[in-house]
Design a protein that fits this description.
This protein is of the alpha+beta class and about 600 residues long. It has 13 helices and 25 strands. It has helices at about 85-100, 110, 115-130, 190-205, 255-270, 310-320, 350-360, 390-405, 410-415, 425-440, 500-525, 540-550, 565-570; strands spanning about 5-10, 20-25, 30-35, 65-70, 135, 145, 150-155, 160-170, 210-215, 230, 245, 275, 285-290, 290-300, 300-305, 325-330, 335, 335-340, 345-350, 445-450, 455-465, 475-480, 485-495, 535-540, 575-580. Strand 7 and strand 8 form a beta hairpin. Helix 11 (about 500-525) packs across helix 12. It is globular, with a radius of gyration of 33 Å.
């Protein structure tokens, strides 16, 4: 009987150099079996050996199915760059999918046919009962009765997954009558500059910021007026179908609802020994020796932090005892800003918003641009150009304007394009699309707040001369830094035409001083002694600096309005000093001209 030599090759099988590695589902590699036709020899290195078959060596009789280790990108479901999801994340996703409706109804009849939305509507009414918002009373025939309306929204997380169905019962406030249903309506909210300044202060003291969301905040505001509303659709009392509700507390979309909530929250915090800021009325501070607690209010969202974690927990306990909370945790997502608090600083960006913006306008596959606008392009009204859809153009501008909250590099380009929203042309639309293509390639850009800071408050101000090709008005840009962190950035078009460049620079410097004084007072509220500190405003125009120091009147200054000489008084009182800075070091330069590739 003849025998044959068998050679086992331990290397994994590859059909050719360009194909991917193949493994089995049990993790075992595919081994190669080579059968030699030579008989009676034990030389395994015989060159005459020829492979006649390849079979996998498995313990079981049935071959295991093959599993592709590498897959084509087109075959992968979902976003490749998101990485691998953990089991907990997948469990949460399944929970959201099973217990929430993925449809957002437009009419109340559609919602009443969906069990998840019925539960959401019932939860809203239960919230009314817990807060004692209203009382069912007979219809007063001589009184104005306001209608009600259901609003349905799907709440998503940072990854875009629907996590909650929110049904909101609102009042039809447009039917209110001034003097009968409402009086005062104004309520302050935190400015974006205040939020940036709060981030800067947290970097100086090196403490974490937290956030809380008060559930149904407006339902906690007490009303001073007598207001009646209709019963909500789908939930009319069967025994009293003709009755109406008399409101004890505010309802969403009532004209006075924001003011009622702000007054309630302010009074509660003041009663608990939290002092209100002298400049920013949405800032609340509590000091205890060297310990500092800060809270910034934006309607029902509160950002807070302290140098002592005990103060943070005390604030959470006090608020939770008085109001119902829907979110308490470390600050990570606020007003569309993605905030990452790291060991050496804070990074804010709008990466998710930027990607959605690009996708919304169908430019995700367009070629990226290195700069948001050409340095040689001068946009004008282009009266002979072809008009484009105003709604589309204004939608692009509005979306980009919100993106400038964390992207000062596109502020000038967006500001220039925003001038032509009344009658946009193809040339204007092309420029806006270029900005979006630039954003597409730089969606992860943002602002970095470092813990390594210098305790100083400085400002940079700049202005071009007759940069607007249509009316020859100038563009003014200001950038204020607190502790070397970005506090305020302003881009605006001057209301006047400047005959002399120095005059425009002087007026721009005076405008920058007003912002600098505002930040100085804000820092006083935060506990930083700025009383005797002289602030510095950097400028790259010696003519403007000399005019501020020397109260001389000549042909270049006699036409300047007296209100613009505010800067002279500040310089004389040594509140502010103007220093010259080279053009290459002028940080406000990016607000007055397009960025170049370098």
């Amino acid at each position: 009987m003849e025998s044959s030599n068998v050679v086992f090759d331990d290397t994994r099988l590859k059909s050719n150099d360009h194909e991917e590695e193949v493994i089995f589902s049990d993790g075992s590699p595919l081994e190669e079996v080579v059968v030699s036709p030579n008989v009676g020899t034990s030389n395994v290195n015989n060159n005459d050996t020829q492979p006649i078959d390849r079979v996998p060596l498995l313990d079981s009789k049935e071959p295991a199915p093959w599993v592709r280790k590498l897959h084509d990108k087109e075959d992968i479901i979902g976003e490749v760059n998101e990485g691998v999801r953990t089991r907990r994340q997948l469990a949460n996703l399944i929970s959201y999918t099973c217990y929430t409706s993925q449809i957002e109804p437009k009419k109340v009849e559609e919602a009443l046919n969906d069990e998840f939305w019925v539960l959401a509507m019932q939860e809203e009414l239960n919230q009314f009962e817990r807060n004692e918002v209203w009382t069912l009373v007979p219809w007063p025939k001589t009184t104005n009765v306001i209608g009600t309306k259901w609003i349905f929204r799907n709440k998503s997380d940072e990854d875009g997954n629907i996590v909650r169905n929110k049904a909101r019962l609102v009042a039809q406030g447009y039917s209110q009558i001034e003097g009968i249903d409402f009086e005062e309506t104004f309520a302050p909210v935190a400015r974006l500059e205040s939020i940036r300044l709060l981030l800067s202060i947290s970097c100086v003291h090196k403490f974490k910021l937290h956030q809380m969301d008060i559930k149904s905040a407006f339902l906690n505001g007490f009303l001073q007026e007598e207001v009646f509303v209709e019963q909500p659709k789908g939930f009319v009392d069967a025994h009293h179908p003709n009755h109406v509700y008399r409101l004890k507390k505010a309802l969403y979309r009532l004209k006075q609802a924001p003011r009622a909530w702000y007054e309630r929250l302010t009074q509660f915090l003041v009663d608990n020994n939290y002092s209100r800021g002298s400049v920013d009325k949405t800032l609340f501070i509590k000091r205890d020796n060297d310990e500092l607690f800060i809270a910034q209010i934006y309607v029902d969202d509160i950002v807070f932090g302290s140098t002592n974690n005990t103060k943070v927990q005390q604030f959470v306990d006090v608020m939770s005892h008085e109001f119902e909370m829907s979110l308490v945790g470390e600050l990570s997502y606020f007003l569309g800003l993605q905030i990452r608090q790291l060991d050496d600083g804070i990074f804010i960006s709008q990466a998710k918003y930027a990607k959605n913006l690009v996708k919304k306008f169908g430019l995700e596959k367009a070629k990226h641009c290195d700069t948001p606008m050409s340095t040689t392009l001068k946009l004008s009204k282009d009266a002979s150009g072809k008009s484009v859809d105003q709604t589309l153009y204004r939608g692009m501008i509005g979306s980009l304007l919100y993106l400038t909250a964390s992207r000062p590099d596109i502020s000038f380009s967006v500001g220039v394009c925003a001038r032509y929203q009344f009658d946009p042309k193809e040339s204007h639309l092309s420029s806006v699309k270029r900005v979006i293509r630039f954003v597409n390639g730089t969606s992860n850009y943002g602002i970095w707040y470092s813990f390594d800071t210098n305790p100083s408050l400085v400002g940079y101000s700049d202005a071009d001369w007759a940069g607007n090709c249509d009316d020859r008005k100038s563009t003014i840009g200001r950038l204020l830094l607190s502790r070397q962190q970005l506090g305020v950035l302003v881009l605006q078009e001057a209301k006047l035409n400047f005959l002399v460049h120095g005059r425009g620079q002087y007026i721009a410097a005076g405008s920058g001083c007003t912002q600098l004084m505002w930040m100085k007072q804000m820092l006083v509220d935060y506990g930083f002694n700025q009383g005797t500190l002289t602030l510095t405003l950097f400028y790259d125009n010696m003519s403007a600096i000399n005019i501020s120091k020397n109260p001389v009147q000549h042909s270049r200054t006699k036409h300047i309005d007296i209100r613009h000489h505010f800067i002279r008084e500040l310089v004389e009182n040594k509140c502010i000093v103007l220093e010259h800075v080279g053009t290459n070091d002028q940080l406000a330069d990016l607000f007055t001209k397009p960025l170049d590739a370098t």
